[in-house]
Amino acid sequence: MTNFPLLECTNDPADVRALSREQLGQLTQELRGFILESVAQTGGHLSSNLGTVELTVALHHVFNTPDDKIIWDVGHQSYGHKILTGRREQMHSLRQLGGLSGFPKRSESVYDAFGTAHSSTSISAALGMAAAARHLGLKHRQHIAIIGDGALTGGMAFEAMNNAGVTDDINLLVILNDNDMSISPPVGAMNRYLAKLLSGDFVNNTRDKLKKLLKGAPPVLEFAKRFEEHTKGMFVPATMFEEFGFNYIGPINGHDLDSLLPTLENLKNRGGVQFLHIITKKGQGYKLAEDDPIMYHGPSTFNPQQGIVASTAPKKITFTQVFGQWVCDMAAADSRLVAITPAMREGSGLVEFEAQYPQRYFDVGIAEQHSATFAAGLACDGLKPVLAIYSTFLQRAYDQVIHDIALQNLDVTFAIDRAGLVGADGATHAGVYDIAYMRCIPNIVIATPSDEAETRALLSSAYQFNGPAAVRYPRGSGTGAVPATDVQPLPVGQAKVVRQGERVAILAFGTLLHPAALSAEQHNATLVDMRWVKPLDGVLLAQLAQTHTHFVTIEDSAKQGGAGSAVGEWLAAHGYTAKILNLGLPDQFIDQGDYMALYAAHGLDEKSIASTIATFVA
Ligand SMILES: Cc1ncc(C[n+]2csc(CCOP(=O)(O)OP(=O)(O)O)c2C)c(N)n1
Ligand SMILES: CC(=O)[C@@H](O)[C@H](O)COP(=O)(O)O
Ligand SMILES: [Mg+2]
């Protein structure tokens, strides 16, 4: 690693507060260089972090952290903050087992005022803290929420602003980090509105008039004065943020310390609800990331000199790609199909679909609740919406799934990606609750394919099912089973006996079928690819219960309330008394790490499964 002389002496925000203006400039350069080299070695969220370097330095210089509270929305841009708050030397462990989390985490540092990772929570949390400070008489404490233009598309941000704008006697500063990007290009009317604030009528007019007014003033003062109440009132039309009750300031250049520092100093002592709009560039300072912020949003390891080089080695197709291919093929076969993503076009495999079917593609922004009810609305008119959504983000739309879709038995297909553990993103992104939270909902059917080929077929089954239907599949690839090219479905609620044995029945839900196969051989057990959590294959279960004494269930999701619980309930309800062992994830949050290692640590690799089953059947 390069030497970073000033950064290496900066161990605490108190050190940042002590730096001169000139040193702060040097610190931003070193911090940016360190982030690039460090993320290149570990992988992680690069572009967003490069874009918030100046803001991070300015915030820690101006505010009195950790007493003042900084809340990073999503938190994928908090690496600079981690580095300046005593975690520089642990950055090599970022997103790895036992290492630093890729997101702010209260248990990791006193400077991480609030744990984030799911978007659009920062204003609510900061407002809560600000209200608590008022209640506790902590008059001087500052509460700062930093939210991106992508995260601002989330409904919670508006709920919080709606509340904040009428809350008296609090210190709340919302900083909108507007880089005109979500993961993919931003969508929606809010994006258009922000663009309007930056362009033409609004800013140019204002700037020209202010220039005249402030002619001769030194540059720093020019910025500070620009925000004085009397000039603002005279020249700047009210923004929607002002209509919400905020004092709107900006837009200013978020890479220019001479703009950021005086503005933040000015805001620090103002009190009330303030809204600062800064303009930044995702990937700032690293040309490759500036040019392709999507590619550099969350890269794995790479050489910073070369940039990301596409591997030439043959790669297994991922589950996401299976979905991406299927949705295009099914759309070709059925003109009623429309596809929806809440801001995860690339991650959900919808790039090609958008290219082929732009009129049938909907990116609704980071708005999972809305995406579900929007799907419901489409279904009411006979369209067949496919909602592509990560398991962890579907949690956001729970009531919409129940109340707006299932209760009305609407024909919506859920393509649930990132089911199971996801690896480097850790507990915040784990897709391990979906089986438990969905299987209690009437009307819905839920499939758990064991490989890529089955994923495609079960997507067709779910799509053809007339009602809400979900297919959950993991990140990455599986056995490499080549999917068919047709869109033939498998029957709903029918499992597949993979191996016929006796006495012991191993019922696998999803891809853990494969590591369980060894145990089936060892114990001459029956091995079943259950395929469906709901409905369970009752006919097969009854046969097995009459001929087997021991049942083992296995799933890559939370055991409590999961697929194994469903089997246990079924056996009990039908009066069977077979012994049952449920294998799955425990009742605890599982932090980041290599996901194979994490499954092994929780007894879900081939070897551990074999030994647990051996003990159970002995
Ligand atoms: C509820 C939720 N949905 C989706 C995501 C996935 N996600 C992470 S970052 C991101 C884009 C955020 O854009 P923005 O807030 O503008 O930050 P930027 O990446 O531009 O720095 C998305 C969609 C998430 N973290 N949380
Ligand atoms: C911060 C965030 O929520 C996303 O960037 C997420 O990390 C993407 O995950 P995948 O890499 O699995 O698409
Ligand atoms: Mg953005």
From TrEMBL:
PROSITE patterns: TRANSKETOLASE_1, TRANSKETOLASE_2
UniProt KW keywords: Isoprene biosynthesis, Magnesium, Metal-binding, Thiamine biosynthesis, Thiamine pyrophosphate, Transferase
Pathway assignment: Metabolic intermediate biosynthesis; 1-deoxy-D-xylulose 5-phosphate biosynthesis; 1-deoxy-D-xylulose 5-phosphate from D-glyceraldehyde 3-phosphate and pyruvate: step 1/1
Entry's EC annotation: 2.2.1.7
MF (Gene Ontology): 1-deoxy-D-xylulose-5-phosphate synthase activity; magnesium ion binding; thiamine pyrophosphate binding
UniProt-listed InterPro entries: Dxylulose-5-P_synthase, THDP-binding, Transketo_C/PFOR_II, Transketolase-like_Pyr-bd, Transketolase_BS, Transketolase_C, Transketolase_CS
Catalytic activity field: D-glyceraldehyde 3-phosphate + pyruvate + H(+) = 1-deoxy-D-xylulose 5-phosphate + CO2
Domain named Transketolase-like pyrimidine-binding: residues: 317-481
Residue numbers binding Mg(2+): D149, N179
Top-tier EC class: transferase
Cofactor(s) recorded in Swiss-Prot or TrEMBL: thiamine diphosphate; Mg(2+)
Gene3D superfamilies given in the database record: 3.40.50.920, 3.40.50.970
Signal peptide: none
GO biological process: isopentenyl diphosphate biosynthetic process, methylerythritol 4-phosphate pathway; terpenoid biosynthetic process; thiamine biosynthetic process
CDD domains hit by this protein: TPP_DXS, TPP_PYR_DXS_TK_like
Annotated thiamine diphosphate binding sites: H76, A117, H118, S119, G150, A151, N179, Y286, E368
CC terms in the record's Gene Ontology section: cytosol
One Pfam family it belongs to: Transketolase_C
Similarity remark: Belongs to the transketolase family. DXPS subfamily.
UniProt-listed NCBIfam families: dxs, PRK05444.2-2
Quaternary structure, from the entry: Homodimer.
Protein name in UniProt: 1-deoxy-D-xylulose-5-phosphate synthase
Origin species: Ephemeroptericola cinctiostellae
